[in-house]
Write a structure and sequence with these properties.
Blueprint lengths: L18 H10 L6 H11 L9 H7 L5 H26 L8 H18 L7
Length: 125
């Protein structure tokens, strides 16, 4: 059964060897599909479990050992404070509940950094 929120997911759903991790590797290794496309396909398939990690997000946040697990931990930290903040932001933007907290996070990160990234002035390149 899949988690109803990213904060409810089990870390084992995101670790090396998990079905999500295996699927990412299988997709990434196909001709014409790189790491970004593989990740975005999986994020689209499981929007409540997997975040988008692309060049802009990598530039902003760097290259953690496991972005999926780091974000999972952040969403659960401090009694799920970040998850609650993202849900509140979704509500204040009058978005439907079908938009996951992860998608809100994706948009916030991307919108925050896209201009710096496009101008090539980001420090995480």
């Amino acid at each position: 059964m899949f988690a109803s929120t990213p904060a409810d997911a089990e870390a084992a759903d995101l670790t090396e060897g998990s079905p999500a991790h295996t699927a990412w590797h299988v997709l990434r290794d196909r001709p014409g599909i790189g790491w970004v496309t593989a990740g975005k396909l999986l994020a689209r398939k499981r929007p409540r479990l997997l975040p988008v990690y692309d060049q802009v997000v990598r530039c902003l946040l760097g290259r953690p050992k496991s972005f999926w697990l780091d974000l999972h931990d952040a969403l659960r930290a401090d009694n799920r404070a970040l998850h609650r903040d993202l849900t509140a932001l979704r509500q204040s933007a009058d978005l439907p509940a079908t938009v996951s907290a992860l998608r809100v996070c994706d948009v916030v990160l991307w919108m925050h950094h896209r201009t710096d990234h496009q101008q090539g002035s980001c420090i995480g390149i």
